[in-house]
Amino acid sequence: MSRRPPRGEYIETDTGNKVARKATLVGTQNIMLGGKTVIQPDVMIRGDLARTIPPAQSASGGPANNTAVAIGRYCFLSKGCVLRPPGRMYKGVFTFMPLRLGDHVFVGPGTVVQAAQIGNHVHIGAKVVIGEFAIIKDYVKVLDGSVVPPNMVIPSFSIVAGQPARIIGEIPEGGIEAFELRDLYKTVGNNPQPTTS
Amino acid sequence: MSSATPSPDPRSSAHGHHKRHSILPAVSQSGPKPPVQFSSSCTIADSALLTGPHTIIVSTESVIHPRARLESLGGRVTVGRRCIVHERACLGAADLQGRYHKGIPDKDGRSMGAVTLGDYVTVEVGAQVESGGTVIGEGTTVGIGTRVGAGAVVGKHCTLTANSTVAAGEAIPDYTVIYSNGLRRVDKRGVSDLKNKAQARQIDVLRRMIPSNPAKFQ
């Protein structure tokens, strides 16, 4: 009997991204992963909903780089979350705008993200809904079950909860280190390293 | 951004293989293949999931996104004209106990069918519309993650915001907005026509973006 090693649950790319085989990535040519990003199983990313009106200036580079979803470094997309570019009527035509995630963004399980932009070091809880064109700045914590309404802007260092989401607190001075996702990245994958406590 | 290549093909091999455009893990066709009636102008994504013994009808210019589920286990599923069903939405879902309701027949004895969507309805990501004679009125938006109970009758031009719940058998009047944790108010903006026009524009764009494959289901 052949003794091939079992296929790992994750595909690890050269840039260190760990993408689960059971994740659903539609339109991968429009999805940019920053590097060292983890995508768990059952995640769905809609890269096919890309902008159809290329910017007027870049006539030569327009269609070649039509990013629908741009994700930064050390992001962690938990099981079952959905990333979907927001869309709206723009100059008489319905267009999808790019969804941009910063670095060290943790997206909890079952969350649906339709924001326009998410900053760096953001922690999004489980079963959260982020409405279309929301803008989340840096170092924000969105608690489980929140519903961020469309077009909301969440300032940096806030803690947000509720349905509709309201700012309920601020990140304390010493709470910044909790947002780092480097250790979490190492615990996932085909060769998970145990958590260093 | 550290990756230089525009497309992060995780299976990037040095052999210059034909680049994969999507990673869609195969979903086995669980359950019987339903009889379908598709309009010629509707857009059904290739990886939509249609199961059940009863008929599924999709009318003119409606769009079914990839990984949307249409289950006709409790009865016929009818999608109206110019509807949009987003991914991971389920029409004809089982209730929380896992039962597929059949729906009480109307006064003439005809079956109500599992789920009926009016025209211009939008069912967003992860919404669960239970089977059992559930009716969603024209122009209504069923928000992300919403659960509409079996047999509920939702009026026209309603807005059910994200993660809201409609109890089984409940009747929601027209122009209602369900928000926060079950609060209700009436939508007095009078923008139904504008919303319908915007939906038609959105469908024009989606029809070009989503490769349709109705032949797979027929």
Largest sheet of chain A: 9 strands, mixed
Oligomer: heterodimer
Q: What is the count of DSSP helices of chain B, taking H or I runs of 4+ residues?
A: 1
Radius of gyration of chain B: 19 Å
**Which stretches of chain A of 5+ consecutive residues score pLDDT under 50?**
none
The helix content of chain B is: under 10%
Shape of chain A: globular
Q: Find the count of extended strands of chain B (DSSP E, 2+ residues).
A: 21
Helix count of chain A equals 1
Characterize the overall form of chain B. Answer: globular
Instruction: Note the gap between the termini of chain B.
Output: 44 Å
Total strand segments of chain A: 23
Instruction: Give the spatial strand order of the biggest sheet of chain B.
Output: 2-5-8-11-14-17-20-21
Helix content of chain A: under 10%
Proportion of beta-strand residues of chain A: 25-35%
Descriptive report:
- Chain A: InterPro entries: DCTN5, Trimer_LpxA-like_sf.
- Chain A: This is Dynactin subunit 5.
- The complex is a heterodimer of chains A (197) and B (218).
- Chain A contains 1 helix and 23 strands.
- With 197 residues, chain A is mainly beta.
- The mean pLDDT of chain A is 88.
- Chain A has one helix at residues 182-186; strands at 10-12, 18-20, 24-26, 31-35, 38-39, 44-46, 69-73, 76-77, 82-83, 87-90, 93-96, 99-101, 106-107, 112-113, 117-118, 123-124, 129-130, 135-136, 141-142, 147-148, 153-154, 158-161, 166-170.
- Chain A is globular, with a radius of gyration of 17 Å.
- In chain A, the strands form 4 sheets. Chain A has a 9-stranded mixed beta sheet, with no helix packed on it. Chain A has a 6-stranded parallel beta sheet with strand order 3-6-9-14-17-20, with no helix packed on it.
- In chain A, 3% of the residues lie in helices and 34% in strands.
- The termini of chain A are far apart.
- Chain B is mainly beta.
- Chain B is built from 1 helix and 21 strands.
- The longest helix of chain B is centred in the C-terminal third of the chain and has 18 residues, at 192-209.
- In chain B, the strands form 3 sheets. Chain B has an 8-stranded mixed beta sheet.
- Chain B has one helix spanning 192-209; strands at 36-38, 43-44, 49-51, 56-58, 63-64, 69-71, 77-79, 84-85, 90-93, 115-117, 122-123, 128-130, 134-136, 141-142, 147-148, 153-154, 159-160, 165-166, 171-172, 176-179, 183-186.
- Chain B is globular and about 40 Å long.
- Chains A and B meet through strand 3, strand 4, strand 7 and strand 11 of A and helix 1 of B.
